[in-house]
Amino acid sequence: MQTCPHCGWENFEGIIYCDRCGVALVRLPLATRMLASSPDVQVRADTLGPDGVIILQVGESDPPIMVQIRGEIILGRISQASEEATYLNLAPFGADEAGVSRRHARLLRDGRAVYLMDLNSTNGTRVNGESLAAGVEKRLRDGDELLLGRLKIFVYLKQ
Ligand SMILES: [Zn+2]
């Protein structure tokens, strides 16, 4: 068994994506295309294919987190597996110092679209510098820059 470092789920050996939270358990190579998204919001993709993967580049130097999202996932500082919700624990990326709430924001996949929603966090959520009101779904595009408190996360949608 291998324990998922993000949600604590025990996965069978050889599995790439955690059965519970969908986060990649091995570090996958990142195509350079992903890190060179167009700054023009109109030409950046806002859809995810059926087997699409969301890549979260947290901070400057950490290897990115790859998530094969199936439903919804809570971004925050909770690491234990829970029956009600799937959590992505950002504590290893300096979430405490950056003012990330325990349940900060929700990533939701609906068909080919991916949405972000702030869960009434203490220090708020920003998308490309714009403040996101709590409880409002914001559709994400490839290359969007998120701020959870002061924690910067770039989002890439891999088809
Ligand atoms: Zn997991």
Features:
single chain, 159 residues, mainly beta, Tumour Suppressor Smad4, 6-stranded antiparallel beta sheet, 5-stranded mixed beta sheet, 13 strands, binds zinc ion
Descriptive notes:
With 159 residues, this protein is mainly beta. It has a domain at 69-158: Tumour Suppressor Smad4 (Sandwich). It has strands at 2-3, 10-11, 53-58, 65-67, 72-76, 87-89, 103-110, 113-118, 125-127, 130-132, 137-139, 144-148, 151-158. The strands form 3 sheets. It has a 6-stranded antiparallel sheet, with no helix packed on it. A hairpin with a 6-residue loop joins β3 and β4. The chain is globular, with a radius of gyration of 15 Å. The mean pLDDT is 85. Residues 4, 6-7, 9, 18, 20-21, 23 line the site of zinc ion.
> Helix count?
0
- The number of strands is 13
Task: Name the hetero compounds present.
Answer: zinc ion
Which structural class best describes the helix and strand composition? mainly beta
- Gyration radius (Cα, Å) is 15 Å
What's the rounded overall pLDDT mean? 85
What is the CATH topology of the domain at 69-158? Tumour Suppressor Smad4
Distance between the termini: 29 Å
Order of helices and strands: EEEEEEEEEEEEE
Unreliable parts? none
Give the helix level as a range of percent: under 10%
Strand order of the main beta sheet, please? 4-3-13-12-9-10
Supply the CATH class of the domain at 69-158: Mainly Beta
> What amount of the residues lies in strands?
35-45%
